[in-house]
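Weekly puzzle thread! Below is a chain. First person to post its structure in token form gets bragging rights.
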Amino acid sequence: MDWDFNGGQFIDNPVPSAPVFLATNSYYAGGPDLTNASVFNVDYDGTYDGEALGGYRNNDNGFQCELSSDFVRQKFIDNGSDDFDLGFFNGGQYANYTRTFATNSYNVYGRMAGGNGPFNNTKLSLVTAGRGTTNQTTQTLGTFADANAAGWQTWHWVPMRDTNGNLATVSLGGVQTTRITSGNNLNVNFLMFVPTVVSVSSSLTATVSGSTISLKFPTVSGHNYTVQFNSTLTGGTWQTLGTPNLPGDGTTKTVTDTVSHAITSRFYRLQIQ
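Winning reply:
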């Protein structure tokens, strides 16, 4: 529900609010407070028979925001506030959502409901330029479809898929704006961005030249690498060798150790995060 306001402005960690509790970091603009009013054709594009935004935003026209009957998330319970969904989300209408994303790859799930039978072609895009203006460019990230939609307040988790029907994976990082555009016949409560689990493995090779031991390992961007050593494989304490948390960049890294005649054995391992 918490799409952009005032021409591309956003709140990273909004507090759910209601007319009796207007937090300064809330998207709710009740009563005479228009601070968080969204801008038509910039932050959103949606009209529903001239309806106001259901009390959620004080714009003159827009989506029909409505109280949601979905399960109540803890942050709404903590603040004693209501949860609204984006209702009457008609084909072609959109809303922009800007946030500061931790750099990662994500799968995206929509909390969605449809009462007119199956829906499809609702898409999520990345705004690549022009946020906060009427001239925005976008790149499609994937689409949502629910063949089992069963009611306007019957909520399902709907995964975003690519053009081949596979679970879509998107890379996000820093301040970025995503846009959800309706394919028709659905309500939307919220989107959930789930970091993907990537299996990364690497080999650690050792060579000796004179009194220098060179430990080499390939790296992958987005992961950090730490070489550790121990004098035993059963017990002891693993200690960091060289610089901890070396950032991967697709190249092979080298960490060195010194041969000591006082050490009868030393074991090495590579920690990847």
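Puzzle host: Confirmed. Bonus trivia for everyone else. The chain has one helix and 15 strands.
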